[in-house]
Specification:
Shape: globular
Helix content: 25-40%
CATH architecture: Roll
Number of strands: 7
Radius of gyration: 18 Å
Number of domains: 1
Oligomer: single chain
CATH topology: Pnp Oxidase, Chain A
Strand content: 35-45%
Order of helices and strands: HEEEEHEEHHE
CATH class: Mainly Beta
Largest sheet: 7 strands, antiparallel
Length: 150
C-alpha cells in the first residue's frame, strides 16, 4: 500500500490497537485516537499498565484496519475485503497543559468534535500520549462483489 493510502486509512480508522510490552509480556489495547503530522495521539487515565509499559520502554507497535467478510456457498470460498496498517514508533507522555490541549484537539478533530474548551480539571487527571511514527506499512485485499451480493 502506498504511504498516502496508509495515512488515509489512519485518518479514517475509528480505533487504533496499541501494542506494548512489560514484565508480564505483550499487551495490546484498543483505543480512540487522533492522527496528524506523522503522530498518533491517545489519552486515558494517568495511571495504569499502559503508562507503566511506556515509561519502561517507549517503543510501541500500532495497528488500524477495515474489514468486511465476503461469504460464499462453500466454506473455502469465504474471503475478506480489508485494508490494514501496522507501524512502529516511540511514545511519550505529554507534560504541559499546552501539549495536552494540542494532542486532545487532534483526537477530537479525528471524531469531528470540538477542538477546544478542555477544562483544567480534565487536563490534570488525563494522560495524553504522543506516538511519533517511525515506520509503517499497509496491505489491501480487494475482492469483486459476486452476483447476488455474495
Amino acid at each position: 500500500m502506498p504511504p498516502d493510502e496508509a495515512e488515509a486509512l489512519l485518518r479514517r480508522a475509528r480505533v487504533v490497537r496499541l501494542g506494548l510490552a512489560d514484565d508480564e509480556g505483550p499487551y495490546v489495547v484498543p483505543l480512540n485516537f487522533g492522527f496528524a503530522d506523522g503522530r498518533i495521539y491517545v489519552h486515558g487515565p494517568r495511571e495504569g499498565r499502559r503508562l507503566e509499559a511506556i515509561a519502561r520502554d517507549p517503543r510501541v507497535c500500532f495497528e488500524v484496519d477495515e474489514c468486511e467478510i465476503v461469504p460464499a456457498d462453500e466454506p473455502c470460498g469465504y474471503t475478506a475485503r480489508f485494508a490494514s496498517v501496522i507501524g512502529y514508533g516511540r511514545a511519550r507522555l505529554l507534560a504541559t497543559d499546552e501539549e495536552k490541549r494540542a494532542g486532545l484537539a487532534v483526537l477530537m478533530r479525528h471524531y469531528g468534535g470540538p477542538e477546544d474548551g478542555f477544562e483544567q480539571a480534565v487536563l490534570e487527571k488525563t494522560a495524553v500520549v504522543e506516538i511519533e511514527i517511525e515506520s509503517m506499512s499497509g496491505k489491501r485485499h480487494d475482492v469483486p462483489v459476486r452476483e447476488g451480493g455474495r
